[in-house]
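Task 17 of the worksheet. Students: predict the tertiary structure of the chain below and write it out as C-alpha cells. Keep your answer in the requested format; marks are given for formatting as well as content.
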Amino acid sequence: MQDLTLALAKTKPGGYVTGDDYGREGWWEGGVERAVDEFCRAHPVDLVTIRNHQFVLRTHARRSTAA
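Model answer:
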C-alpha cells in the first residue's frame, strides 16, 4: 500500500501506476491483491487491467491535491 501511495503522489493526473504479483496465491500472503483492491477504493484511480499477475491503474484526469 505504501508503494502505491508513493507512486500516486509522483504520477500526473491521467497517468498510470503499474505493478506485479496481483493474485499470486501465497505470494506476500495475498497482500498485493488486498493492497491494490483497497487502494482502488480509497484513491482517485481506475483499474485498467489485470493480466498475467500484472495490474495497471490510471489516475483520474482531474484529482484533488488534498491529502
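Marker's comment: The chain has one domain: 2-59. The radius of gyration is 12 Å.
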